[in-house]
Amino acid sequence: MGGLNTVLLNSASALQVYDQVFNVIENNVTNANTPGYVRQDQTLVAGEFDPAAGIYEGVSAGPLQSARSPYLDQAVRNQTEQLGSAQQQASDLSQVQPLFDTSGQNGVPGALTSFFDAFSQLSVSPNDQPSRQNVITAAQNVAQQFNQNAAGIEQTASNVDTETTYTVNTINSLATQIASINQQIGTTPDASQNAGLDAQLNSALDQLSQYVNYTSIKNSNGTYNIYAGGQTPLVLDQQAFAISVNTSGAQTVVTDSNGKDITSELQNNGGSLGSELQTKNVTLPGYLSTLNTVAQTFADTVNQQLSEGLDSTGNPPTVNLFQYNAAQGAAFTLSVTNITPAQIAAASAGAPGGNGNALAVAAIANQPVLNGATITQAYGNLGAQVGQDIATAQQEQTAQQSLVDQAQQTRASATGVSLNTEAAELIQFQQSYQAVGQLVATLNNLTQTVIDMVQGT
Amino acid sequence: MGGSVESARRHLGRLRVALTSASLREMEQAVPELEQAMVSLRELEARLGSGEAPEAGLTLALLALARETQLAQRLADRGRDLCQGRAMALAAAAGGYSASGKPAPLGPVSTIRIEG
Lengths: 457, 116
Prior knowledge:
The structure holds two protein chains of two kinds. By secondary structure, chain A is of the alpha+beta class. Chain A has two domains: about 5-70 and about 415-455, no CATH class; about 75-405, no CATH class. Chain A is built from eleven helices and 14 strands. In chain A, the strands form six sheets. In chain A, strands 5-6-7-8 form a four-stranded antiparallel beta sheet, covered by helices on one side. In chain A, strand 2 (about 50) and strand 3 (about 55) form a beta hairpin. Chain A is elongated, with a radius of gyration of 38 Å. The two termini of chain A are about 30 Å apart. In chain A, about 40% of the residues are buried. Chain B has one domain (about 1-95). Chain B has three helices and no strands. Chain B has helices at about 1-20, 25-50, 60-95. Classes of the chains: A alpha+beta, B mainly alpha.
């Protein structure tokens, strides 16, 4: 058998391993709440053991084993991308919702009701000057409400532009951070064993998923390449490639570091950037287009009906009630001309001084002049569409939040640090030492007994 | 007789390596080594009890065994104390302290997940 010295030497070496194991446990505990950190386990490698030959190598420390699971990381990031998109959409669209009154008493619906009521009132006293003035005032109110709606949508688009700029800056900042970590990984010996760098890198990747859809590819040296939208390089090894955003035009455009338009790769493709591009380039223009159509149809229909009547002098009117600039948007530019109360054509052709045309204009309120819907219904449909889009976005946000929570919990249970588990592991060690200690005490007593017997003989 | 002592020391040597291995499995696997060491000593005890004369150098071998046993004992005690202290510190980190000032009891470490 090997001598006591051999055993002690190997015991000393094994104690170092023992200390290393506890250092790993301690590091796990210290970093239990560090973003991106996953549990590390010290592997042990059995040494040669042959007492007959005097070989007592015990154990040595093997490589550190990370509990990181690329699959679980990817699951969390995929869900986070969708959550980022849903949150952004719900947030942006909720700015539009107050513009569309659902009670019918205020906003455009209320103004339309007042307008058609004003013509009804005029039909009662077609030559009454105050009633004629009321019609003009009601018309101005309708125009103003359409203007405010359009301006509100434009303001939301401007807010989305500001958010998009912030998002792009954040993406570029995270890309720079990842490139910097890649650089450290590239220059750190045995970087694969560095749980701190691994935690920093994965925390940055987790954050990035909130903002943009991307694909990450791990290189053989442990660094990551990141491709926005799966195609555009954001990070290649130690170099970051900044993307840019241009919000000056009607459509927001995102370009890669070479100036190539990559908007279509990112739009509605996950992350808050995907949602911001979709809202700015598709959703809000859609709302505005419908609003313009409603405003234009309303103005044209009323103007047309008035043009068929006679003013207070018994002549066909020479001035329209409404005017707008279609190129700049009917809703945004709708206004009342410099028409005078006397020029309102309340009478029907052939019946000067009558109320026929005022009744005809009032009747427009119930006529299906826009795709089978009245003006108020068409506007209500737009409001309903906005409400539906917001409800869908909010439902998606709730569902996605739940999916992200689940994915994070699954990942945490598989790769996270449980202080209880770490402490329980130590208690198991403690109990084993205690059990062995009792057996050794028995052996010690037995040895003493035998020594006494030998010495007594 | 000397063979029995040597056998006990050999088993004890394996136990001491296991005690410093930082592996629960190795420690558990070393317990039979300890039992074997006891069996060897019991045999020696029986032979001495039956009146067999001790071999020369047996006392020295036994004293060496006793010294190594005490070292193993100390190693086990230190390991126990170290783990106990660290476990208490971790338990306090995990669950805080109880009203008595001791670390709060540990929660269950096992989890059950139902999928499907």
